[in-house]
Structure formats: C-alpha cells, structure tokens
C-alpha cells in the first residue's frame, strides 16, 4: 500500500476501494487513474486550449445546448412566474440545485391528483405556491424544476424507484470520431431520489457491444455481487433496453462539441427512450473503473491522451 502511494500517488483509500491488494492487480496499478487525477488532466486540457465548459457544465445552460442541437433531454419549468405552467407539472417533480454535485441538493415533489396538490417536504402545496415552495427546499440557491422521469419498464424492478442512469465516457479516436470507451449503470440503494455513488448507490459495468451488465459493484466494503442489494433482482447478465440508441445519442452529442476529447454523459433509459440528463466536462471516472474491475488507462484512452498532448494548444478541432 505504501509503495503504491509513493510510486503512483494512490492513497490508502484508493488502495482499498480498488482492491489493489489482489495479486491480479499488481501489474495494472499504474493504469489506475482516480477521479481527481482525471479531473486535473481534463482541466489542464481545457485551460491549454481555452475551452468554454459552461454550456455543458452549467445545468441551466445544458438545456439550451440540447435544444440547439436537437438532443432529447429533460425539460425545465421556467422560473418566470408569468410563464404558463407546462402540462407535465401535474405529476411528480424532480428538483435539483444548479450547482449541486454528486447527487447532493436534490428532492422529489410528489403530486397528489385527488387533491390537485403537491407534497413538498411535509407540506401540501397548491399550484400557485409550488415554485416558491420548491425554492424553499434549498434556500438561497438556484434550482431547476423538472418532471420526474421513470425508468424504462424493464429497468423498474431491477433498479428500484429512483431514476437509474448510465454514465458513458466518450473519447475521440485518431480520426476525431467520438466513441464510447466506458459505460456504467448507476442504481440507487439507500436513496429513493438519486442513484449517485456518493449517495450510497451501486453500479454495474456495461458491455459496450451488447449492453449486457456485469456484476453489481457495492461499497463499504468494495465488492462485486450478482444481485441488487435492495431489490434482490439479478443484475449480472441483464441487457439494457435501447442500448444502441443510447450509444448513438452520446456520440451525436459529443460531435456537437468536437473541441472536447473526453466527456462524461449521464443518460436515462426512460419510458420515452434514452434521454440526456447531464454532461460532465471533467467526469468522475471511479464509477467507470470500479464496476469493470479494469483500470481506465487502456490502449484506447492512452491513445486519446497522446493525441491531445501531441497537438498544438490552439488547435480545437
């Protein structure tokens, strides 16, 4: 453990989280890239090439990006009190702060059709006060109000109540074509609101060719199990719905911003098909390494990094 910490800058937490003590990992330790290291690399690339990340990283502007490029995403209820309420407001809603991270700052508002009212926290709120009540959940912070998407019917028993999302990491090949290089399905365990790893969620690697899931990665302690710990459903071998469409969606989205070499996409496999939820210009990559039991720095990712640092800083295509 101490040798890895000194030689590869991998602290004890990573040693145990990635289970680097296993004999089969000894020759692959140098290919592990924790999220903070990958984030530093992505930020360095953005500074080097003067990239504007706000249209992707800012949750409010991401909706505008998707609309401009005709990409399916989750609509937002405009904060203007004079704006008419969208039809989908009369349903369960999802609220998140625009500067939230790791699933923090999120809440579900449930619609009670028999009362034509919403349960906001423990209060029953009518339509006229709904936006204000939602803002009061996170005082002093900017929020987005969206419809609460439902998982694809085939996913509902497997993943539980919270929306399960795929974290897909895309990278450009030597011809500049985006490709999916890693993908992981995130599933809620302890939360009924979000599926984030940092909120106690589980994850399973996605076979890129088939959309078939591997074993379920669980935390504390790190381990791989065949079944979801809460629903009891078999995760290993489950085939994701609309997988080819989801891959094409994130590659199409990446083609809209060719100046980026790496991007992380959160994709919901919903009742309406694949939908973009968020984009991460410097994505957390622990989530796409741990369930696969495979370090990030494979030949494809290394080739992409070499291509980036071989070009001049000014070049952006």
Question: Can you put this structure into words, describing what you see?
Answer:
The chain has 317 residues and is an alpha+beta fold. It contains 10 helices and 12 strands. The termini are far apart.
What's the topology here?
Blueprint: H1 2-8, H2 12-17, H3 35-48, H4 54-57, H5 59-68, E1 93-97, E2 106-112, E3 117-120, E4 123-125, H6 130-137, E5 143-147, H7 153-159, E6 165-172, E7 178-187, E8 202-206, E9 213-218, E10 223-225, H8 243-255, E11 262-270, E12 273-280, H9 286-289, H10 299-310
Antiparallel strand pairs: 1-2, 1-5, 2-3, 3-4, 6-7, 6-11, 7-8, 8-9, 9-10, 11-12
Order of helices and strands: HHHHHEEEEHEHEEEEEHEEHH
- Numbering strands along the chain, what is their spatial order in the largest sheet? 10-9-8-7-6-11-12
Tally the helices: 10
CATH class of the largest domain: Alpha Beta
CATH homologous superfamily identity of the largest domain: ATP-grasp fold, B domain
Radius of gyration: 20 Å
Low-confidence stretches: none
């Amino acid at each position: 453990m101490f040798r890895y910490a000194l030689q590869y800058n991998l602290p004890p937490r990573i040693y145990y989280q990635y289970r680097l003590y296993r004999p089969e990992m000894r020759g692959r330790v140098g290919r592990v890239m924790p999220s903070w290291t990958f984030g530093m690399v992505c930020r360095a690339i953005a500074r080097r090439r003067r990239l504007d990340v706000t249209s992707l990283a800012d949750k409010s502007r991401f909706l505008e990006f998707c609309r401009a490029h005709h990409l399916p995403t989750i609509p937002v209820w405009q904060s203007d009190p004079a704006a008419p309420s969208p039809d989908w407001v009369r349903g369960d809603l999802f609220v998140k702060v625009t500067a939230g991270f790791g699933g923090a700052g999120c809440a579900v508002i449930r619609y009670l059709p028999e009362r034509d009212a919403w349960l906001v926290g423990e209060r029953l709120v009518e339509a006229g006060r709904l936006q204000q009540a939602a803002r009061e959940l996170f005082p002093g912070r900017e929020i987005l109000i969206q419809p609460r998407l439902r998982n694809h019917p085939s996913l509902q028993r497997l993943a539980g109540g919270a929306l399960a999302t795929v974290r897909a990491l895309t990278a450009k090949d030597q011809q500049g074509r985006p490709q999916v290089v890693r993908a992981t399905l995130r599933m809620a365990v302890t939360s009924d609101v979000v599926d984030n790893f940092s909120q106690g969620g589980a994850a399973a690697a996605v076979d890129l060719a088939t959309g078939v899931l591997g074993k379920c990665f669980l935390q504390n302690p790190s381990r791989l199990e065949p079944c979801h710990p809460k629903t009891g459903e078999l995760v290993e071998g489950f085939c994701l719905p609309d997988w080819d469409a989801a891959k094409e969606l994130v590659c199409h989205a990446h083609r809209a911003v060719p100046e980026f070499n790496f991007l992380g996409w959160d994709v919901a496999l919903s009742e309406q098909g694949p939908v973009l939820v968020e984009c991460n210009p410097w994505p957390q990559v622990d989530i796409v390494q741990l369930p696969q039991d495979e370090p990030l720095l494979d030949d494809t990712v290394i080739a992409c990094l070499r291509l980036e640092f071989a070009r001049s800083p000014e070049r952006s295509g």
